[in-house]
Design goal:
Blueprint (H helix, E strand, L loop, with lengths): L1 H6 L4 H5 L1 H32 L2 H26 L4 H25 L4 H23 L1 H5 L5 H27 L5 H21 L33 H12 L2 H16 L6 H9 L3 H20 L10 H19 L5 H28 L3 H32 L2 H22 L1 H5 L30
Helix pairs in contact: 3-4, 3-8, 3-9, 4-6, 4-10, 4-16, 5-6, 5-9, 6-16, 8-13, 8-15, 10-16, 11-14, 11-15, 11-16, 11-17, 13-15, 14-15, 14-17, 16-17
């Protein structure tokens, strides 16, 4: 029994931090609502156009604001109270969700309007999502950070499991359809706003001050005005990442996985070609990824014992790519769903390792910008991957596009392994959350890490 318990996800952060618990519950409920929207948008576009390329362009509509606003949003998060920032931006996101609801129930059928609302939503998410990630190191002790990141991933897996399956049922229900998906998402923002509103203030800290975790450490002081949002602050964050082979390796590994090995833009076409286009089957595609990730995160207890996180991340990326290469060609629905579940399981470990690496090797003064870069790499890479997969699928076939992307992902993981030995050698240490040397080893103090130039 004790061995079994050691395999289960560590839920102690939910017991020990009431603020983290409220944030986690609110984020989980809102994420399920968000999954309904991101199921409905590609399906509505495909229903209007019957074009994989048009679905891929949804990825472009998400990618452009993510790339242009994401890094700037990180510099804002390092200069203002992050809690207030997330409250304001989340309220605006709720308004956009209401706009999607209105256009669906009105039956407008305007492709340009869908793309416009996606652009606005993605731009707002590029500001709020990285700022949200910086809450976790402030609410948890460094030793609990891997468990917190695993629970954060559990939210995503619950979203992937429950969201698409629920969305498929709602979309197939008369008088609800895609409008019902958008409406539930709009209402779910209430849970998210409540979780953030109950958090303590999250003011910025100076570059030579330790990260605030469970209570402010000795010497804590705010640094409002020390980091000014703008291109110069963004450049400081990019330079910090460039000087760290560990952070660079984590970002490159994720880009490799998302650009080449995430062919969700092909899902409607592959579903139509192989399984008759039933929305419920399409929902099972994403649900299978969610189930695989959910099972792996529920049994993620041993993850805290993995010290060579860079090496483990690359192995998980290779499994992710191989699973997507196989999903498009194996016979039968059950084998297809099984490989998607394996991909989801591998993705869980990839994300938890990357998130832990980012949060433990970055001082709080840089955390907004580095986390924003992490978000840009993850979200922007995924949307670029959707565009690439959709374009290649239109030129060749959806199956060829999916197989090619998976094979390239495996090859890319091998290239990163050989090109960045410091990333492969990196060892996680449950030390201070704001310490991390440029070679992946912990310095003696936070001051050993690079500090931003005076604004």
């Amino acid at each position: 029994m004790q061995v079994f318990k050691s395999l289960l996800v560590d839920v102690s952060p939910l017991r020990e931090s009431a603020a983290f618990r409220r944030l986690w519950i609110g984020s989980t409920l809102s994420s399920i609502g968000g999954a309904l929207t991101w199921f409905a948008v590609p399906l509505q576009v495909y229903d209007l156009t019957r074009s994989p390329l048009a679905v891929g362009l949804v990825g472009l509509a998400q990618m452009v604001p993510t790339l242009t606003i994401g890094l700037l949003g990180g510099s804002i998060a390092d200069a203002v109270d992050r809690r207030k920032l997330v409250l304001i931006v989340s309220s605006a996101l709720a308004v956009v969700a209401a706009g999607l609801t209105a256009q669906a129930f009105a039956g407008l059928g305007q492709l340009w309007l869908l793309y416009l609302l996606v652009v606005i939503s993605s731009g707002l998410l590029a500001i709020s999502a990285p700022a949200r990630q910086t809450f976790i190191p402030r609410l948890l002790t460094p030793g609990k950070l891997p468990a917190g990141m695993a629970l954060n991933r559990l939210t995503f897996q619950i979203m992937l499991t429950a969201g698409p399956a629920l969305a498929g049922l709602i979309a197939a229900t008369p008088h609800l359809g895609l409008g019902g998906c958008y409406l539930i998402d709009t209402l779910s923002f209430g849970a998210s706003l409540y979780g953030v509103a109950r958090l303590p203030a999250m003011p910025p800290v100076s570059a030579n001050t330790s990260s605030a975790v469970s209570g402010r450490p000795s010497g804590y002081r705010t640094a409002a005005g020390k980091t000014r949002p703008g291109p110069r602050a963004v450049a400081e964050g990019v330079r910090y990442i460039g000087r760290s082979p560990v952070l660079a390796g984590a970002f490159l590994a994720d880009l490799n996985a998302t650009v080449f090995g995430l062919p969700t833009a092909l899902f409607p076409a592959i579903n139509a070609q192989r399984f008759g286009g039933d929305p419920r089957t399409l929902g099972l595609f994403l649900t299978a990824i969610g189930v695989g990730g959910l099972v792996s995160v529920c049994f993620s207890g041993p993850i805290k014992h993995v010290s060579r996180q860079g090496r483990a991340m690359l192995i998980a990326v290779a499994i992710w790519g191989a699973a997507f290469a196989g999903f498009a060609v194996v016979p039968g629905l059950w084998l297809t769903l099984g490989l998607l579940a394996i991909a989801g399981a591998a993705d869980t470990f990839t994300v938890v390792f990357r998130g832990t690496i980012v949060q433990t090797t970055t001082p709080d003064a840089f955390r907004g910008r580095v986390t924003a870069a992490d978000y840009v790499v993850g979200a922007g890479g995924g949307q670029l991957g959707n565009l690439e997969a959709g374009a290649l699928g239109s030129l060749t076939s959806p199956v060829i596009s999916a197989v090619t992307g998976g094979v390239v992902t495996v090859a890319g993981a091998l290239v990163i392994w050989l090109a960045l030995p410091a990333f492969v050698r990196y060892r996680f240490k449950a030390g201070r959350a704001d310490e991390g040397g440029l070679d992946g080893q912990e310095p003696e103090s936070a001051e050993a890490a690079p500090t931003p130039a005076p604004a």
